[in-house]
Design a protein that fits this description.
DNA-binding; homodimer
Chain lengths: 108, 108
DNA sequence: TAGACATATTCCCATAAAGGAATATATATT
DNA sequence: AATATATATTCCTTTATGGGAATATGTCTA
């Protein structure tokens, strides 16, 4: 089997650096595809393809205005990712003591 | 060109569900490869390969004890992911008003 | 209706992926 | 040294990927 499809879940969609860049640009700020092409310095088809992936997992939403399509980041969709990482939060840095205690508790 | 290698950055390494599962199991709780094989119901080579990927991006650390290798999650390495998602936090749900204001401010 | 413009899709290519099977390596035990 | 045990690696196959080039679709304007 090959890698899971980028369109199958948010983790996969976000694994691609360009797409992360797009999400960063589009958060709280709608942009047309053309604007993105300029901002990112990518080919237009490339941008459209990334947007498609992002749209399929609902990381962005689109709106048509005449000939143009305006995209914006749907921050909500990033929440699952955030929550997943938050689970690990208590295990890093400024809580070394707790981490240790927990680790020892788990090692039966 | 294809996607960036899973071994090149944390986002990619974490895109694979089994690897996320491994990280969850190994946080605050050291386990041998054999234990992981049992817990996850995967083939041993498969587990070893996933662990290799995780080790290359330092998401896990390893320790040898006799014939066995014990792995544990290095939560620190998840921080970048957490920070990236945190950037979007202010844009979701319970702060709709702020989001709107921000969006309007950005649309010159 | 025929462009012109903005965006989306398709086709092709080289590369990377994950699982399975087989095999290699490392360590302990006899 | 020979064997058993635990883990790692390699080879193979199928599938997904992302970029580039070309083309298709959709929408506006003359």
């Amino acid at each position: 089997m090959s890698r899971a499809a980028t369109t199958s879940d948010v983790f996969n969609a976000v694994a691609e650096p360009r797409r992360r860049e797009i999400l960063t640009v589009l958060v709280g700020c709608e942009r047309s595809v053309g604007e993105l092409v300029e901002l990112l310095g990518l080919e237009q088809p490339s941008v459209s393809k990334h947007l498609r992936v992002l749209r399929e997992v609902e990381l962005v939403a689109a709106r048509r205005e005449g000939k143009q399509m305006f995209y914006r980041t749907n921050a909500e969709a990033i929440k699952p990712l955030h929550e997943w990482t938050t689970f690990f939060q208590r295990y890093w840095s400024h809580q070394l003591k707790r981490v240790k205690a927990r680790a020892e508790a788990n090692e039966d």
